[in-house]
Structures are given as structure tokens and as C-alpha cells.
Amino acid sequence: MKRTLLAAASLLLMTAAYAAEPVKIGFLVKQAEEPWFQDEWRYAEQAAKEKGFALVKIGVPNGEKMIAAIDNLAAQKAQGFVICAPDVKLGTAVERAAKRNNMKVISVDDRLVDGGGKPIASIPHMGISGYAIGKQVGEGIAAEIKARKWNMAEVGAIRVAYDQLPTAKERTMGAVDALKAAGFPVANIVDAPQAKTDTESAFNAANIALTKNARFKHWVAVGLNDEAVLGAVRAAEGRGIKADNMVGVGIGGAKAAQNELSKPAATGFFGSVMISAREHGYQTSVNMYDWITGKAVPPGEVLTKGMLMTRANQADVRKQMGQ
Ligand code: FCA
């Protein structure tokens, strides 16, 4: 009798200890300085406050820092993490590090791939519907070309490219396909590969493309995010190509795009397809919390939508996207 009571008591204690284990979640992003990732973190903080878990935000600009961050999270007794890795090819390394430390992992924005380049299905993912959002970019540009009555033969299109990142390729190819569908001449599309996914690299890439193709009268620009298109817009400005001869449409719609679209005078940055930082930051964190606490297993893959935001509808789009 005594022994059974003791056993029951120790079981109770163990359960209590387990239940009391505070939930700690890591949120690792590849480019912490980018407004999009700042927004994701902000919405993740909101989830942490609401659900009462601890959130650890870490910037992971390269593979070495990423592995160190995962091990560090484990030492802090985090039970899981959400990650946008610096390189999707690190997928197997991410999964191995999570397993080794007995942590759960969800990817956000960039889908992790294995050694053969195949998406790792065992890591739940939330990303954007890259091709569809790219098409919205292309359609927005095509409509503006029409509105300005430009002769398409005289328009050059810069595709700021980062094709080693699958979502980047999908986005920019979606934009190119929409332009083609609107009758844009394929020969006028110029690829400008960027070394990194930031404004400076896009600026350098676009500059080369503009120099080599001085024959065009007007320009349009697409890229994987707002930073890519802003780089192209700034490069064009440097060559005297301003708002009346440039239509750039980005993807993201975070602070950088909002600032640009709020400048008193229009620039070549015509708009941005706004995507949901709230969903990517808040919902992935809630999904991780539910997974850790045994409430629910996250969906295998969620792809979110976007809305074209321009100077004309900026306030309305932000309201509709709840941002
Ligand atoms: C990628 C890009 C970011 C953002 C995100 C949704 O990670 O690099 O700029 O667009 O997808």
C-alpha cells in the first residue's frame, strides 16, 4: 500500500514537472536586418505573449552560425524552432541538428531541401505561393505599361535573379510568364543575377544589365523581394531613368516598400505584392507551440497569398492584410 502510494506520488510529481517545463521556441532568420524578417519576429513576439512561451530570436547569416544557434537553443532547453535558413541546401544539416537535440523544427519562407535538391517533407513548411505571386507582379507591370501606352518593343525588363533559391526562381519566372502572356517580347527580358539577396547586390547586378542594354527607352524590373527591385530602381536612377520611365514591382510590402511608396514624389518603385508577415511570423510560432504542447501537429505545407500594393491603394491593402 505504502509503496503504491509512493509510486503514485512520484508519478504525479513527474507529470507536474513535465507540465511545468516552460515552452521555449527559437525563431532563426537568414537576414535579420531585412524589414520582412523584422516583421516576422514582431508577429512571433505577439504569439509568444498571447500563448505565454519564451521566444529566442537569432540571426543566422551562414551555416556555421546556424548550427551554433541550434545547439545554443538546445542548451537553453528550447523544445523547437522556426527557421528561414541561409541556404536551403542546409536542409539535411538542420534536420540532423534538430534530431540530435530532440527539438522540433518548422521551416518558414524558404523550403529546405535534401542533398538531391528535394524538399524535405518531414519538416513542416509555411511559404508563399511563389509562382502565383510572381504572376501578380508581372500582371501589375503589364497593366501599367498599357496605362502608360508604352510601345513594348521599346521596353526592357530586368529580372534580378537569384535562381539557386527555388522560391526566388518561381517568383521571378511567374513574373516573366505574366509579362509574356501580356505580349511582352521575350528578347527584351534581361537577366541580372545577384550575388546575395540584398539591395546592394541587386543594384550592382542591375547596373550591369542597364549598361549593356542602353537601347531601351523604358524599363521595368522584377525580383524575388522588395530589396531586389529597389536595387534595380536605384541603379536606373543613377543613369537618369526615373519614375516616368521605370516600373518596378517588388514582393514583400514591409517597411522598405512602404517608405518608398510614401515618398512625396513617385519613384520607379511602382508597387509591391504584399505578403503576410503576420501569418508567417505569428502562425508558424503558434503551430510550433501547439506541436510542443501536444495540441496539434502542424500542416505539412501552407502556401500564403499576396496583394498588389501601389501608391493608390497602400492604406487599403495594409488594412486588408491586417498589417
Ligand atoms: C525569402 C526572401 C525574403 C522574403 C521571404 C518571404 O526568404 O529572401 O526576402 O521574401 O522569402
From TrEMBL:
One of its GO terms (molecular function) is carbohydrate binding. Keywords: Signal. InterPro entries: AraF, Bact_Solute-Bind_Prot2, Peripla_BP/Lac1_sug-bd_dom, Peripla_BP_I. It is found in: Periplasm. GO terms for biological process: L-arabinose transmembrane transport. SUPFAM superfamilies: Periplasmic binding protein-like I. The record marks C84 as: The binding site for the sugar molecule has not yet been established, but C-87 may be involved. Residues 24-294 form the Periplasmic binding protein/LacI sugar binding domain. It comes from the Bacteria. Coiled coil: none annotated. GO terms for cellular component: outer membrane-bounded periplasmic space. Its main location: periplasm. Residues 1-19 form the signal peptide. PANTHER family: D-XYLOSE-BINDING PERIPLASMIC PROTEIN, L-ARABINOSE-BINDING PERIPLASMIC PROTEIN. Belongs to the bacterial solute-binding protein 2 family. This is Substrate-binding domain-containing protein. It comes from Rugamonas aquatica.
